[in-house]
Amino acid sequence: MVLNKELQDAIEKNLVFLATASKEGVPNVVPVGFARPLNGETILIADNYLNKTRQNLDENPRLSLIPQDAKAFPFQVKGTVEIFESGEYFDQVTEWAQNVMTELEPKSAILFKVEEIYSVQPGPNAGKKL
Q1: Of 27, 78, 114, 128, which is most buried with the most CB atoms under 10 A?
Q2: What residues does each domain of the chain span?
Q3: The whole model's pTM is what?
Q4: CATH architecture assignment, domain 5-119
């Protein structure tokens, strides 16, 4: 699946909500302000304060994301992640976060590979895979 330009912009310019689950199935949802699509298939996320989310991703690398403005962008994005604590992606999120708030020190970079996109728009197509 590929994110269109409009959805990429919505993810980068607004908060997104990340949903994860532990290996035992305990859910967690958090708002995140540092998510940036690198292209239509990959989103880079800065792990500044993700405690339960990070623990869940270490146990279960599946992630679901929804834009804050689900009325304007009624999509749920699902996929898998890879976590980097050093290297190119980590350097990118560190520079990005510190350009916004100099005191931020990201713990890791989360590379989210988009695999599925679903509609969350109310109506007969709610939950439909796009």
Answers
A1: 114
A2: 5-119
A3: 0.92
A4: Roll (2.30)
